[in-house]
Design goal:
alpha/beta; Rossmann fold; 6-stranded parallel β-sheet; 17% strand; globular
Length: 126
C-alpha cells in the first residue's frame, strides 16, 4: 500500500489539536507547528513531526491546514517573515479553517494564487 501524503498543520489549539490527532490516527503523517511549543509536545509524542515555523511546514507539505484564532494571526501565518507563503510550493493546497473576516480570506487567496498555490476558506463555527 502506498504511503499517505504528509499533511501540514498550523494552529494546535482547542480545535486544531484534535483535528491533527485525527489525521495521525488515520495514518497521515503530520508536520505541525504552533506559537506555543507546549501545544506541539503531545502531537510529537504520538508521531507528528514538529517544525519551527509555518514556512517550515510549507517546505515539507503540499497540503496544509490552518486553524487560527483571528484575522491578524492568519495574516502573520501566511504572509509574515516566517509565513507559509515564503516557502510554499506551486500546487500546494492551503485550507484555512479559521473563522475570520471574509476580506482577509480573499486577500490570502490572492496572495496564495500569486505563488501558484490554492487557498480554500473552510471556516469552523460553533
Amino acid at each position: 500500500m502506498a504511503s499517505k501524503t504528509p499533511v501540514g498543520f498550523v494552529g494546535l489549539g482547542n480545535m486544531g489539536s484534535p483535528m491533527a490527532k485525527n489525521l495521525l490516527k488515520n495514518g497521515y503523517p503530520v508536520i505541525a507547528t504552533d506559537v506555543f511549543p507546549e501545544s506541539c509536545k503531545e502531537l510529537q509524542d504520538i508521531g507528528a513531526q514538529v517544525v519551527d515555523s509555518p514556512a517550515d511546514v510549507a517546505e515539507k507539505a503540499d497540503r496544509i491546514l490552518t486553524m487560527l484564532p483571528s484575522s491578524p494571526n492568519v495574516i502573520e501565518v501566511y504572509t509574515g517573515p516566517n509565513g507559509i507563503l515564503k516557502k510554499v510550493k506551486k500546487g500546494t493546497l492551503l485550507i484555512d479553517s479559521s473563522t475570520i473576516d471574509p476580506a482577509v480570506s480573499r486577500e490570502m487567496a490572492v496572495a496564495a494564487e500569486k505563488m501558484g498555490a490554492v487557498f480554500m476558506d473552510a471556516p469552523v463555527s460553533g
